[in-house]
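Workshop exercise sheet. Pairs work together: one partner reads the sequence aloud, the other fills in the structure field after running the prediction. Swap roles for the next sheet.
Pair: D.N. / O.F.
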Amino acid sequence: MGLFNKIKGGLYGVAIGDALGGTTEFMSKKEIQQSYGYLTEMIGGGVWELRPGEVTDDTQMTLCVAEGILENPQDPKHAIGEKFLQWYQSDPKDIGNIIKRVLSTYEGNWFEAAFLADLDLGQSAGNGSLMRCIPVGLIYPHLRDIENISRIQSKMTHYDERCNQACEIYNRIVFKLLHDELLVEAIKSEIVGTEYEDILTREPECESSGFVVHTFRWVLHILLTSHSFPEVVQRAANLGGDTDTIAAIAGGLAGVYHGFESIPYPYANTILIKNKLDTLTGQMIELRQQLGMSS
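Structure field:
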């Protein structure tokens, strides 16, 4: 499978999971069953009154990370931050508490703003930096850069080390998938010795909440026990809880592994920002090639 197919699959995977799971966000599994049976189509609606194919903060912030890296790949923090602030000023429908606190109090130092938000809210271990981190793994060809930038973009809003670690693990898996490793083997090799290792043998014994550890447990479990891209995003969207984010994070990895060509046409075609995703795919691949040649 070619690099273009994988990178485009990763971007679309985030958006499709987000748009599908946005319908059921904050609902319980039982409420989803009562309202939709088993949701398989992007119908919009939900708490955010989405249009079919409309994405939320998960995809929007993913685009901010991608565009920031494209602007300054050597030191993208400032550029990513400017994209975050522009997005925040657009009055988005959906924005997490931690990120809202950081963006509303930022005064020139991202890490300080994240630290103060952690003190003020009492915790900052949300899934908001994990949901947006995939462009790092898709753009940078070298693992050392992936590890470093994954953590930097996370620490800009999330002070808790568990967020930074999850982003690094996630993009190390992306790196392996882009080098044709099997999904199950890539996940196993990255979570052995971590607090996620137990999901290799059993279903997560936690809620599907916005806590990054809970989110990542469910993401990894769904990926390990599914066999196709549609199965991944549908299971995540019907899980209950923070469905859009869990489906976006899982959909990103599933999209990289299975490739864009494996994504059903009705899913990809319904995404309202598909032209934006197509343009970014080309720009990201071009930059990745430049970075590879300049090293």
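Discussion prompt: The CA atoms of residues 3 and 178 lie 7 Å apart. What would you look at next?
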